Amino acid sequence: MKLVSWNVNGLRACVNKGFLDYFKTADADIFCIQETKLQEGQICLELGEEYEQFWNYAETKGYSGTAVFTRLKPLSVRYGLEEDREPEGRILTLEFEGFYLVNVYTPNARRDLSRLTYRLEWEDRFRSYLLRLDAVKPVIVCGDLNVAHQEIDLKNAKSNQGNSGFTNEEREKMTRLLESGFVDTFRHFYPDRTDAYSWWSLMPRVRERNIGWRIDYFLVSERLCPLLKDAQIDAHVMGSDHCPVVLLMDMPAEPQAPIST
């Protein structure tokens, strides 16, 4: 089974920059995106009849939003954490026979850290939600988690210490989540790999010089580790300030009929 996650930073713009070409080449069984930045009816995405599409739109126009395109028929779909809604469109949970898939766009603490308190509270709720799911069946989490966990996960760790996405508080929340029974799949395979990033500032020549951060992840319940085959970062793929991340697993992924509507 192949899963892909990509923060597209505006799907309409990304479609004009090659999104569909990559989508077809990737040939994923499940393809998750974050920061769609659109509302229902603002795009008609032709992905083929084998893909069912699920969207969670933010109430604010042009902001946030997540989507999942899947060949596998989910047993259920949930929008949000405590309630079956998410005003910022940040979470989609699909239940499959053998696992839950959680596609998430974690809130940014903002440059001035004005949203850090909210972010930390959100992290606690999100962790509790994942643990409730994990008590039922294994969980695969993917998306833009908006944190570089360790110094190895960004180019200039010292100069970014305390900045949004690399505060001690945000990093500690990630540590706590991993210690709760989840595995960072990329570090599972490549614990010491440096210069492996998934986001780059839009400032001139930053991406060309690979001055980046790894803030896009696939996390899995520990008991799924024997099924992991590889975790990849498609850093060569343009179209967004993020690049896609990929997870390969030794799980059945037979195409199934789309959900009837």
How is this structure best described in words?
- With 261 residues, this protein is an alpha+beta fold.
- The chain has a single domain, classed as 4-Layer Sandwich (Deoxyribonuclease I, Chain A).
- The chain contains six helices and 14 strands.
- The protein has helices at 11-15, 19-26, 116-134, 157-160, 168-179, 185-189; strands spanning 2-7, 30-34, 52-56, 66-70, 76-79, 91-95, 100-105, 139-144, 182-184, 199-200, 212-213, 216-221, 228-233, 245-249.
- Helix 3 (116-134) runs parallel beside helix 5.
- The model is unreliable at 255-261 (pLDDT under 50).
Compose a concise summary of this entry.
This protein is 20% helix and 25% strand. The chain is of the alpha+beta class and 261 residues long. The protein starts with a strand and ends in a 12-residue tail after the last strand.
Morphology call: globular
The value of Rg in angstroms is 17 Å
Helix content: 10-25%
Q: What is the end-to-end distance?
A: 26 Å
Strand content: 25-35%
Mean pLDDT metric: 94
User: How many strands, what sense, and barrel or not for the largest sheet?
Assistant: 6 strands, mixed
CATH architecture descriptor name: 4-Layer Sandwich
Assembly state: single chain
Strand numbers in spatial order across the main sheet? 3-4-2-1-14-13
Q: What is the name of the CATH topology?
A: Deoxyribonuclease I, Chain A
Helix/strand order = EHHEEEEEEHEHHEHEEEEE
CATH top level label: Alpha Beta
Discrete helix count: 6
